[in-house]
Amino acid sequence: MPRNTAPADIELPFSAKYDAGHSEAYHDKHRSGLRRRLSNQRDLQLARSALALAGEPQWVLDLPCGAGRFWEVLGEKPDRQIIAADNSAAMLEVARQHCPSTLAGRVRLMHTSAFSIDLPDRSVDNVFCMRLLHHIGDSEHRLAILREFHRVVRDTVILSLWVDGNYLSWRRRRQEAQRQRQGKDGYQNRLVLPRATAEAEFKAAGFGIIKHLDFLPLHSMWRVYVLRRA
Ligand SMILES: C[S@@+](CC[C@H](N)C(=O)[O-])C[C@H]1O[C@@H](n2cnc3c(N)ncnc32)[C@H](O)[C@@H]1O
């Protein structure tokens, strides 16, 4: 199997937090409380619609797979093969323990980084990337990841991130400005990206936009993009 040609791996501070305790808590988080369960259902619904827009891909790289939150939806197409990848070994172990037996033969786990994916060029039909890019503050880092997706994918990418142009991003910006005025620590491990910036970066990495889907239009920051390799 040819190794990828990406530059040396990049380690981000936020990536280090997914140890065994945090990974198990992440698995439980989306299943606890009515608000989180409803929000999770909406995420699954958006994923289902995005997969349909992407033409129901057969070989999907779920990166980062986290605790396997989307496997139920990914598994709805009976002949789909899922490569479930994450750079936290602890997260992969939690995902393995909770993997439904009906999917066991179709999910292959892989310990790898989004900056340097351990797969050959054009080896999957789709890269499915939920809840990673809103952690990546540096444009060069986002572009490195998008270019790595471009290298391994044959057809489409589905990704989620936080965008501007809605009520919650406006409120967040106000809160951040207030914190700065009060001299409080400005470090954030999640960020809102201007839509124009995100879309320019997709183009620069070689993707065209098929469609976007908003979690709750004009209110929520979460947006899912369906991209096609140009
Ligand atoms: C917020 S979770 C999202 C997991 C899953 N996609 C979901 O929505 O439930 C972020 C995940 O990104 C993984 N991660 C962090 N840095 C990464 C990197 N450089 N490459 C691949 N995965 C990474 C973490 O281990 C964690 O599982």
Describe this structure in words.
This protein starts with 19 loop residues before the first helix and ends with a strand. The protein has a single domain, classed as Vaccinia Virus protein VP39 (Rossmann fold). Helix content is 36%, strand content 20%. It has seven helices and seven strands; from the N terminus they run H-H-E-H-E-H-E-E-H-E-H-H-E-E. A seven-stranded mixed sheet has the order 3-2-1-4-5-7-6, sandwiched between helices. Helix 1 packs across helix 4. The site of S-adenosylmethionine has 16 residues, from loops.
Helix and strand sequence: HHEHEHEEHEHHEE
- Order of adjacent strands in the largest pleated sheet: 3-2-1-4-5-7-6
> Which spans of ≥5 residues are poorly predicted at pLDDT below 50?
1-6
Total strands: the figure is 7
Mean pLDDT: 93
